[in-house]
Specification:
The strands form 3 sheets. This protein has a 5-stranded mixed β-sheet with strand order 3-2-1-4-8. It folds into 3 domains: 85 residues, Nucleotidyltransferase, domain 5; 61 residues, 2-Layer Sandwich (Nucleotidyltransferase, domain 5), CATH 3.30.420; 109 residues, ATPase, nucleotide binding domain (Nucleotidyltransferase, domain 5). A hairpin with a 2-residue loop joins strand 9 and strand 10. The protein contains 6 helices and 13 strands. The two termini are 24 Å apart. Helix 5 packs across helix 6. The chain is globular, with a radius of gyration of 19 Å. By secondary structure, it is an alpha/beta fold. The longest helix is centred in the last third of the chain and has 19 residues.
């Protein structure tokens, strides 16, 4: 997504996640994304000083950068796909959302990705827009540190890039700030995503053998998602539900959820730091768990 503003000159590539409260950098090493650095911050005002420190410490100058931008800095809308050629679609895309945004469409960078076909619905796309001044800020911030902005993608797409392409659909439930992000990925494509609130405070609490609001609540949310993708997206077979959650009893949580939803549930790969998970998803090829 959002590649057309940038050229491609440098030799090595890294992925940088820019969030409201965190910055993280990954590099692709021996076929896997590896976390180089990650830091929690107070706000996006600290992006510049944090990147400067990381670039100097880890000698990252003259790299291409694939940016994953946090959800606080973009908007997305699902609309019917116009029946137009690609070039014409791109040209008219900003005006298709002019009544949905408060900014002038001339002040936005706009791109889209196709949504999987749904039962009894026209072909749809997800339109993503980022303020142009934010894109230019990122470009200049990286340029000041002798880095080249190659592309920008969003959190939802980053989760789909954590997996190798597979005909089997898999689900990732990851912890992102005050929310959980449920993503369904098949053949390298994001088929469905859902943000879930209200469970982060329950994750640190030890699980018990009796009723538990975390297990009961998540089971219901996940089952609803499964019912939707089965009925609307015609996905009948799910491979694995992966959990990327900061939970001391994650193995027990996996077991309990597996019993409730009758699917294979397992913690996501221990090779990934869950605090900075989305930084790993900046590359357009991922590593399976």
């Amino acid at each position: 997504m959002l590649k057309t503003l940038f050229s491609n000159r440098s030799k090595k590539s890294i992925s940088i996640y820019f969030g409201m409260n965190k910055v993280a950098i990954c590099e692709y090493v021996n076929g896997k994304p590896v976390l180089i650095a990650g830091e929690l911050i107070q706000s996006d005002d600290e992006w510049s000083i944090t990147i400067k420190k990381m670039v100097n410490e880890y000698r990252l100058k003259n790299h291409n950068v694939a940016v994953v931008i946090g959800k606080d800095f973009y908007q997305k809308f699902d609309i019917d796909k116009p029946d137009l050629e690609e070039k014409e679609l791109q040209a008219t895309l900003p005006f298709s959302i002019k009544d949905l945004v408060s900014e002038s469409v001339f002040d936005l960078v706009v791109d889209y990705f196709d949504k999987p076909e749904q039962v009894r619905k026209n072909a749809q796309i997800t339109v993503v827009c980022i303020p142009k001044k934010r894109v230019l800020q990122l470009r200049d911030l990286l340029s000041d540190n002798e880095l080249l902005l190659k592309s920008i993608t969003i959190e939802e797409i980053a989760t789909s890039q954590l997996f190798e392409k597979s005909e089997e659909a898999n689900i990732l439930l990851s912890q992102q700030g005050s929310e959980l992000l449920l993503s369904v990925v098949k053949s390298g494509q994001l088929y469905f995503s859902l943000r879930i609130r209200g469970y982060n405070d329950l994750l640190p609490i030890p699980l018990t053998d009796g009723e538990n609001p975390l297990v009961d609540g998540l089971s219901l949310e996940i089952q609803r998602a499964l019912d939707f993708i089965n009925s609307q997206l015609q996905i009948n077979t799910i491979g694995t539900l992966y959990l990327a959650l900061q939970c001391p009893d994650i193995d027990l949580l996996s077991s309990k959820l597996a019993n409730y939803i009758d699917k294979q549930v397992t913690p996501f790969s221990a090779d990934y730091n869950y605090d900075f998970l989305l930084a790993y998803g900046g590359f357009n090829q991922g590593a399976s768990a």
